[in-house]
């Protein structure tokens, strides 16, 4: 292929790098918005403000989808050129735009609800509302029934203790696969150790059937962390 195509691919790689950075900024924005919403519930603020945070999350989810589509369009374009090896390389910008537009035509607003961070936001928000006696609407009540025993365990304060360290957690993470929570450093240490042995790290919770805990399955358990912090503050205030 012409030497110029390599330069163009370098430009495409640079574009992908920028898009990944943009995606990380969006993820950070969603994390911050989630914490703000939970703060609002915890401090008994007007629920309209909480609803506004949900709208912000949906906007972030939409931006995330758009960036993801553009990344896919760039990658598909590069793969197409490498596969077909045309004698004359087409305008890559136009080709990317064509693929991006095709992906955007498939957009459905309902699919934003399946955005991982938005779904986690909704789950944690519903748990916080329940803990603080905020009435859930019909949709939230139905969704809350889908949350497994993790919520009940959190409310009864039974899983403040890490199943690995056997001490109260300070930075709990939740396993999306089985719903159990652990101290972040402790579970990551187990995963790293097992990886060095080329083995899978099973969930350390007694009785759990999850045979492999992956880093990608771990998400911050913000609701549990706040419950632990509140209990700690209450204990200190009664001394």
Q: How would you classify the quaternary structure?
A: single chain
Helical content (DSSP H or I, runs of 4+): 55-70%
Please give the number of β-strands.
3
Distance between the termini: 76 Å
Describe, in plain words, how this protein is organized in 3D.
The protein has 239 residues and is mostly helical. The chain is built from 8 helices and 3 strands. The protein has a 3-stranded antiparallel beta sheet. Helix 1 packs parallel to helix 4, helix 2 packs across helix 3 and helix 2 packs antiparallel against helix 4. The termini are far apart. The N terminus is likely disordered.
Concise overview:
The chain is mainly α and 239 residues long. The chain has 8 helices and 3 strands, in the order ααααααββαβα. It is globular, with a radius of gyration of 22 Å.
List the helices and strands and how they pair.
Elements: H1 3-42, H2 47-84, H3 92-104, H4 116-131, H5 138-144, H6 149-155, E1 172-175, E2 181-183, H7 184-196, E3 218-220, H8 222-237
Antiparallel strand pairs: 1-2, 1-3
Helix pairs in contact: 1-2, 1-4, 2-3, 2-4, 4-5
